[in-house]
Amino acid sequence: MSPQSLQRGAYALVVLLGLAVLLCAGIELFTLTAPILKNYNEGWNATHAQAAMTAPASLYPGAQSFLTNNYPPLSFLVVGWTASLTGLDAILAGRLVSFLALVGTGVCLSLAARAFGCRWRYAVIAALLFWAAPWVIVRFAAMNDPQLLGNFLDAIGLAVIARNPRSMRHIALSALFLTLAEFVKPIYVTLPLALLAWLFVTQRRSAWALAGFGLLFAAIGYALTFFILHVELLGQLFSPRVFLWSKITGQPGQWLLVEALPLLASLALLRRRGDVAALFAGLYAALAFVLALFFSGGDGVSASQMMEPAMAVALGAALWLHKNENRRWSFAGLGFVAALQAVMLVLSFLGLWAARPSLQELMGSRYATRFDVALIARHKEPVLCETMALCYWAGKTPQMDAFGFTQALKSGKRSPDDFVRLLDAKAYSMIQLQPRSQFALPSPLWNAIIRSYYLEHQDKNGFFLIPRD
Predict the structure, then answer these.
(1) H helices then E strands: how many in the chain?
(2) CA end-to-end span of the chain, whole Å?
């Protein structure tokens, strides 16, 4: 096959990938306002977003509370402000923020690729590869989760400093956005570390400036949090979390099934001596994958930690294509990756790949969710919802973060006795448990629950229990 034919075929498959992304993103827009339960975190984030706007002092509960918060406050403030401006509830506002952040991250990656010297065609490919990252659209594109907001702030910082890494103005502005990302979620350390390592090799003065501005902005943010919210943030961020070595190969392994070639292309850039753009892309990809591999061992950690490697390899693949466009098999590799990601993206939406409910299953659950919310709303306070979104939509006061509480139990940081006393006293007028509940066996709390409560009904959203008397 001639090089021209390979190139035309590759671009045709890139167009196919673009159409798949547009189709999935368009369908996902219909789920923005749907009463469906996409993820456990949606209700948890909405609860804290509401607290940030109505009762900031309750954003970080005390040690004896059944509610926990190990995230910095910025995402809750952004979602709360969006809810106030749009009139949406905090879950729907969070979904809107996440979707817009997804679009913005892809745009910023394109701008960064251009700043590193890529042609526009390859810069656009960088955005497409990120948008098509297998669990971006299905799991995070329109979900009330701060992951993509943090990625967006990081991507802005990258696009800014890539334009002129010698300029103090660009360095300061980049440091500001990188620091803001840390106040969304504390795991956004990969890009700052990659930039510092890269600049230390290529522009040492810029590296010291970036570190200095970053520490300055972090200190300002920490002080504002302390004086406004009256909380010592570091103590909140390091809440108990069980680490499971057996989980390390799970999500990174699935990610590699479709991202192995872009990762290898990014790492291959490290072989280009004297090329500063290639050095950064290779460092970023290597560091992002290694740290994501480590973070994936945390109990309850979802696929969110693979978003940073998705950003890194999208940028790295675009740079590799730009620097190797005259090689015969470059476009064959591009066509293969585009076709593979388009297919896997569609399979993910249909629920035929990776462990998640399909879009059809999610939309089919909206009738059960409406029924369950109305049922919970009719019960008197307090109602305990393991799926916090149900109690949030029903207008009930949040009672417990089941995941955070059980993590504290597993790590030995807390005793179950105070919760068992409430169960024995039948303090809750209803308890809702997820289909795969944190309180199911072998949890020691299961016997305490069934001792005082019995099944009222069961549906797609789990089990609904009422007191035995």
Answers:
(1) 20, 4
(2) 77
Q: Which two tokens stand for residue 294?
A: 């480590």
Exposure string of 251-272, with b = 16+ CB inside 10 Å and e = fewer, is: bbebbeebbebbbebbbbbbeb
- Structure-block tokens of residue 426: 């039948």
CB within 8 A of 441, min separation 6: which ones? Answer: none
Distance CA 52, CA 135 (A): 29
Q: Which two three-digit tokens encode residue 36?
A: 């469906």
Is 241 within 8 Å of 299 (Cβ atoms)? Answer: yes
Nearest to 396 by CA among 384, 408, 404: 384
Alpha-carbon distance 419 to 405, whole Å? Answer: 10
Q: Which residues of the chain have pLDDT under 70?
A: 1-2, 134-139, 238-250, 297-302, 354-357
In total, the chain counts a number of residues equal to: 469
Residues in a beta bridge with 463: 433, 458
Residue-wise pLDDT tens digits, 120-168: 999 999 999 999 986 666 667 889 999 999 999 999 999 999 999 999 9
- 112 burial type by CB count under 10 A (0-12 exposed, 13-18 middle, 19+ buried): buried
DSSP-derived pairing of the beta strands 462-467 and 453-459: antiparallel
CA distances 263 to 13, 27, 237, 276, Å, are 19, 29, 31, 18
Please report the sign of the dihedral spanned by the C-alpha atoms of residue 137, residue 141, residue 145, residue 150.
positive
Q: What is the pLDDT of residues 241-271, one digit of tens each?
A: 555 545 565 677 778 888 999 999 999 999 9
- The angle at the Cα of 316, spanning 315 to 322, to the nearest 5 degrees, equals 95
Return the biggest CA–CA distance within the chain.
Answer: 79
